[in-house]
Amino acid sequence: MTTKILISRRSIQLLRILVSGIFLIAGFNHLLNVEKTAQRIEQASFKGIAYYFGEPQWLIILSGIVMLTAGFIFLIGYKTKWAALILMAVLIPITLTVQVGQITTLGPLFKNIAILGGLLFFILNDTDNLLK
User: I want to staple 68 with a disulfide (CB 3.0 to 4.6 A). Which of 27, 31, 32, 109 is the partner?
Assistant: First the structure.
């Protein structure tokens, strides 16, 4: 049995806009500060995860492009489920590499967990059809 829950369209739009902001800023940051970001990976406890996927500088540039592209698509509300899936696919390895295992970064770790929750909302709910 499916239960319908009424949700304000405006709240869905605001959630999407606010969640997309972190990816747009992070995407620009990755592209503008490749070396600084690579140093953060090098200092991470689980840097091996990044190296498993390839050369960190290449991954930083690629993730920057993906975060900007999918972040913008998510921002404008086009194919939000797919954009959220792509953003989640980028966020999980970044979180595992940089935040997990860093006692000083529990705040950013739980920030990323909260962002994952926001992305899951759009993955699990057909919000594209709610807004039309």
Answer: 27
